[in-house]
Design brief:
The chain is built from seven helices and eight strands, in the order H-E-E-E-E-H-E-H-H-E-H-E-E-H-H. Strands 4-3-2-1-5-8-7-6 form an eight-stranded mixed sheet, sandwiched between helices. The protein binds 1,3-dihydroxyacetonephosphate (13P) and zinc ion.
Length: 210
């Protein structure tokens, strides 16, 4: 995909997330790799009202070269780009995944149990990353330590973040994460049947979606 198409995709998905209430106000950020660097959403922008020409452009090292000033979550996004093969990163403050990130009794190594096939296929294991101030560079080593085995994470008391090969793949994954978080919360306290390890292994072997 060329840079214009990637800029259009970021705007299209940002608008869609905002209009469906998947992130509010100026929360959340999207980035994607382009041939000579990265395109990111500007800091303090509303994902619903992005303009392709005002998106931030960074060089391959992460220096801002054009457009509005970039998201303050560059260290978070770069932990994925440097640690795994991916072309896009999306962070939202979607309600159910954020609610899950605030619970004190979830499994920190895998905050989202394998409740449906699609969360296994598109998201996989979701570790809970310890709280850091939004935009802090301290997030980078914490996320870097989990990206070899995970394409997604929950930031403690903050929200979800996912990586994908494309903006669309990352969007599908973060939506699936949100739906699974919703199901996990709706069924909390009930006797939930999780997918058995054989089913998870079968899905991992059959589908390569992340
Ligand atoms: O969600 C956010 C911080 O975690 C939004 O930050 P930015 O406006 O800098 O992208
Ligand atoms: Zn945030």
């Amino acid at each position: 995909m060329n840079e214009d198409a990637i800029r259009a995709d970021i705007v299209r998905w940002g608008k869609s997330f905002f209009e469906r209430g998947l992130t509010a106000g100026s929360s959340g950020n999207i980035s994607a790799r382009v041939e000579d660097g990265f395109i990111t959403t500007p800091t303090n922008s509303c994902l619903g009202f992005l303009k392709p020409e005002r998106l931030s452009k960074l060089d391959v090292e992460g220096n801002h070269i054009s457009g509005d000033p970039p998201t303050k979550e560059i260290p978070l996004h770069f932990a994925f780009y440097e640690g795994r093969q991916c072309g896009a990163v999306i962070h939202l403050h979607s309600t159910y995944a954020t609610a899950l990130s605030c619970l004190s009794d979830i499994d920190r190594r895998d905050a989202l149990p394998p409740i449906t096939p699609y969360v296994v296929m598109r998201v996989g294991k979701v570790p809970l990353v310890p709280y850091t101030r939004p935009g802090s560079t301290a997030i980078k080593p914490l996320v870097a330590s989990i990206v070899a085995n995970s394409s997604a994470a929950l930031l403690e008391n903050h929200g979800p973040v996912v990586s994908g090969l494309t903006v669309e793949a990352a969007a599908f994954a973060i939506e699936e994460l949100e739906e699974a978080a919703k199901l996990a919360l709706l069924t909390r306290g009930m006797q939930v049947r999780h997918l058995p390890p054989e089913a998870v292994a079968d899905l991992d072997a059959t589908f390569k979606l992340r």
